[in-house]
Design brief:
CATH topology of the largest domain: Alpha-Beta Plaits
Strand order of the largest sheet: 13-12-1-15-14
Bound molecules: iron/sulfur cluster
Mean pLDDT: 88
Radius of gyration: 23 Å
Number of helices: 23
Strand content: 5-15%
Number of domains: 2
Length: 496
């Protein structure tokens, strides 16, 4: 066993307002430069919807991520080193600018300089690429609140068109904020022929060495989440860096987390076994990938794990932070968080607590008794968002995983309602979802009333661990990748 520490984020989808503050503040900080006008390291999509870039979840088309070969071994969906060499001057799996959107600005000067006229002056849209006037037909958030969405546009809705169309009259939607998942088994890293993409050993962040990037853009096509972007001005790849300067040097939250109006984001450290990563990604059944990844998160309270972590030079305050980690609690202890599209086999490290609707107040309207500890779960079966749709996004189609998480959330809400109204601890509710009453109260504290200190438990990098902070490796499950074998040099990483 080789214990490594990894920064991880969990987002609670029920709390997202779709306000886009996270996207805007991230853009102000990282991508308000020429060449990256079209880039949103953080974007918030309305679901159902095709997303940004369009239909990014359609891997039959984009060929991102991993699949298993006939022997059950990992293979890049777009092919390994040989395939990369053949297509190195013609990567056909890249999204075009129209798949993202053509960035634009407005003729603001006209609003000030226009001569006196009968009508008000109009600031027409102009392309940031050609400078010509534009007819706006698509943008990064075009589908906000279901604007113009058709189920056929959404790959996760495949096979559910009839159900979704029927339910459209009831109008359900939720928001899906997305950043790079800083995957444990990143296909972007394995796709890079230049060795420019790397995963940092000290905290697991996936970064781009700008000096080594040769603009092949296989990282862009290799990432199934389409979270690496190409800057045509610098001719380099760029991506979310998890605000590493502030996070690892000062223990500050990422900008998207810090400015999140809904307080949906949780940051912390988890421990995992590096040697188990490839086997985990090679889990035969897609539906078992969630549980495999969950089990890979090591218990930081286990003395054996702690002993091995110390042996592997994990600083003590990082182990201590892993013990207080809100993301470990949500993903492993409480089992309410799920990874985004685990079937891509990249083992993402940004997880989501699925949306629960209707709320408790709707249970009575649905014909269930909100006071009955058993009937209350009927709300989960009757929820407006089709369970299969959420499972297609967060559990490789396995509805049992989503059902389990939603029942736990429902149990927590009913338990706390009872506790606050009657002062009684309804232990049966906890037992019905295979939990303890204290766990439901812990879940409530985390999801409902957690302070900033409880939501972001980030240890600072230690001065004496400087060399480890700069060491890097090229991803764990690199078998079948285009890049070179894992290395452990001591290189200085650079910001995009
Ligand atoms: S494969 Fe994972 S780590 Fe790489 S860019 Fe995509 S989301 Fe990020
Ligand atoms: S700032 Fe928070 S609440 Fe607003 S869209 Fe982003 S994730 Fe959602």
């Amino acid at each position: 066993m080789q214990v490594q520490a990894h920064l991880m984020m969990v987002m609670v989808l029920d709390k997202c307002l779709g306000c886009h503050t996270c996207s805007v503040t991230c853009k102000q900080a990282w991508t308000n430069r020429d060449g990256v006008d079209y880039v949103w390291f953080n974007n918030v999509e309305t679901k159902p919807g095709s997303g940004y870039p369009k239909r990014w979840e359609d891997q039959a088309h984009w060929r991102g991520g991993w699949k298993l070969d006939r022997r059950g071994r990992l293979k890049l969906r777009a092919g390994g080193r040989g395939q990369k060499l053949i297509t190195i001057f013609g990567n056909f799996d890249l999204p075009a600018i129209d798949d993202y959107y053509e960035p634009w600005t407005y003729d603001y000067a006209k609003l000030i300089d226009a001569p006196l006229a009968d009508g008000p002056p109009v600031a027409t849209a102009r392309s940031r690429i050609t400078g010509r006037p534009m007819d706006l037909r698509w943008g990064p958030n075009w589908e906000d609140n279901l604007a113009g969405v058709k189920p056929a546009d959404d790959p996760a809705a495949a096979g559910l068109e009839r159900e979704l169309l029927g339910r459209y009259e009831e109008v359900f939607l939720f928001y899906l904020p997305r950043i790079c998942n800083h995957c444990l088994n990143p296909s972007c890293v394995a796709s890079c022929p230049s060795g420019a993409m790397y995963k940092r050993a000290s905290d697991g962040l996936v970064l781009v060495d700008q000096d080594k990037c040769r603009a092949w853009r296989f990282c862009v096509s290799g990432c199934p989440y389409k979270k690496v972007y190409f800057n045509p001005v610098t001719t380099k790849a760029e991506k979310c860096i998890f605000c590493y300067a502030g996070v690892t040097e000062d223990g500050l939250p990422t900008i998207c987390s810090d400015t999140c109006v809904g307080r949906i984001r949780y940051l912390g450290v988890v421990l995992y076994d590096l040697e188990a990563v490839t086997a985990m990604a090679e889990t035969a059944e897609e539906a078992d990938l969630v549980e495999a990844q969950r089990q890979s998160l090591l218990d930081p309270h286990n003395p054996m794990v702690v002993k091995q972590a110390e042996k592997n030079n994990i600083p003590y305050d990082w182990i201590e932070a892993a013990r207080r980690s809100p993301v470990y609690a949500l993903a492993k202890d409480l089992r309410v968080a799920l990874p985004l599209h685990p079937e891509y086999r990249t083992l993402p490290m940004v997880w989501y607590v699925p949306p629960l609707s209707p709320l408790l107040s709707g249970i009575g309207e649905a014909g269930y008794d909100p006071e009955d500890p058993v009937e209350v779960f009927g709300a989960v079966d009757d929820m407006r968002i089709p369970m299969q749709y959420v499972a297609n996004i967060l559990a490789a189609g396995d509805t049992a995983q989503v059902d389990d998480a939603l029942r736990r959330l429902t149990a927590m809400r009913t338990y706390m309602r009872r506790l606050q109204l009657t002062g009684r601890r309804e232990v049966a509710l906890a037992q019905a979802v295979d939990m303890r009453a204290e766990q439901l109260e812990q879940m409530y504290r985390l999801l409902a009333v957690a302070s900033r200190e409880d939501r972001y438990v980030i240890p600072k990098a230690r001065f004496e661990a400087g060399a480890a902070l700069q060491s890097q490796f090229r991803g764990a499950g690199g078998r079948g990748g285009a890049g070179r074998s894992p290395r452990r040099g001591h290189r200085r990483e650079r910001r995009p």
